[in-house]
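Journal club prep, notes for RB
We'll compare a predicted complex against what the paper describes. Inputs for the pyridoxal-5'-phosphate case:
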Amino acid sequence: MSVPATREEAVSLDGADRLARERERFVLPEGVIYLDGNSLGPPTKASLARLDRVARGEWAGDLIKSWNTHGWIDLPLRVGDKIGRLIGAQPGETVVADSTSVNLFKVLAAASRLAADRSVILSQDDNFPTDLYIAQGLIELGGGRHRLRTTAEAEIARAIDSDTAIVLLTHVNYRTGAMHDLATLTAAAHAKGALVIWDLAHSVGAVPVDLGAAKADFAVGCGYKFLNGGPGAPAFVWVARRHQERFTQPLSGWLGHAQPFAFAPGYAPAPGVARFLCGTPPILSLAALEEGVDAMLAVEPQRLRAKSIALGDALIGLVEARCARLGLELVSPRDGARRGSQVSLSHPRAHEIMQALIARGVIGDFRPPDILRFGLAPLYLRFADIWDAVEALGTVMRGREFDDPRHGQRAKVT
Ligand SMILES: *Cc1c(COP(=O)(O)O)cnc(C)c1O
């Protein structure tokens, strides 16, 4: 446990932190403590420089030749393989494309074709809504051949049966930070003959994942959260090699074709995971994402995880020590091994409290109905930041700053 008793102790934890220098890779505004890198990661200096190079040098300078001369066409698979190293993939199992939502559609459709003799897509009541929405849309498109069933987190393993086609789960819960045991649930699904799709949006870049060791089937994940790819950065798809040639996905666009530049009228899927591409990739975003992923690959994953847990333990311990009896409840698992890289607290006035914190330069986010969410990105956060954030929280709570009417207004994005 690393709960500092004073700010000096927090600073000395930073002094002993072997990841402390990684912060220098990032561009962060002065006077801000950023606890929202799980929603939109900040840029690295390398990403900003790369964006400039790709825009001014490659796009403006070499125009369309850049697809070949600067390897633009290879970026989806190249960056995919780099992300693959963070999730226990083999080369050729991961590709960057589209958004997480669109990729979920592709893998759900592909998997439901494989499991056509079973009717249930099983998920969790409080899964991230887009995952449930995409399943609903796909089921409607399929004319009701499948149905969506959701259960509470604790009931999932028991709910898998011989009619379960697909288990669709998010590894780290976006609201609570609770983390599933990926290997155990994958094995439980396989024992009943079901396939599993893992959404790694809140895992990749923060929690080591080993899809290969777990013998997982499919996964998707997000490029703009802990991977720091930038707003709207493309997402990724991972497909176990043993499944790749067995199915196709329905968004059969030309870049997933075996020979896109043959311009043949009939679709023939590319070999391997490239068939999960659809249209032209967003090169600027992909280039920025590659730099974000490279920053992640430069550090030891276990060291990243250890710091993430220590930051979470410190935040929980400090809230309990310094914000006791202010009505804040811990929502995240106390056990770091069961927690992703975030800590969530609940309070009936959570929205206004978060607005008041943001006004003080501590940026986290609010999730309905009553959750204050603090993302813990171990590459650039310091223990002193956690100390200062909890001090700000105490000040907001004790001064009832959340009663200020200007903190009551809800913006489009929370
Ligand atoms: C953030 C997030 C997404 C995002 O999907 P987009 O298509 O990129 O908007 C999907 N699933 C989960 C679990 C998320 O947390």
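Talking point for the session: The longest strand covers residues 164-170.
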